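Worked Example 4.2. Consider the chain below.
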Amino acid sequence: MEQQIYTIIITLLTVLTSTAAWKFYEKKLNLKAKKDEDNSKDGRLYRDDLRDRVLKLETLLGESSKEKDKMRENIVSLTSQVSRLEVEVEFLRKDNETLRAENHLLRASRM
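Applying the procedure from the previous section yields the following structure tokens:
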């Protein structure tokens, strides 16, 4: 009889510990799966954030390229205007020198 009681107690302990062990491992696996899912979710959020940043940078790069082209056109236009004005100033200086010389001659001939 004593042998049977030991057998019953050992069997009950085995069953109870097996159930507790199963629940422990099940909870451990669930927690690990949830942790992996959270890590995966964080990775997706990080990736999506990087995509948004890349799109913004590409947009800014395109805009700055357009602005650079406009500035280049403005520089070319201003350079041509400055060249034209330099030529005009040179002609005006020559005309001014000619007129001064004529004016000087007219004053000298009146005296």
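The chain has one helix and no strands. The chain has a mean pLDDT of 89. Compare this with Example 4.1 before moving on.
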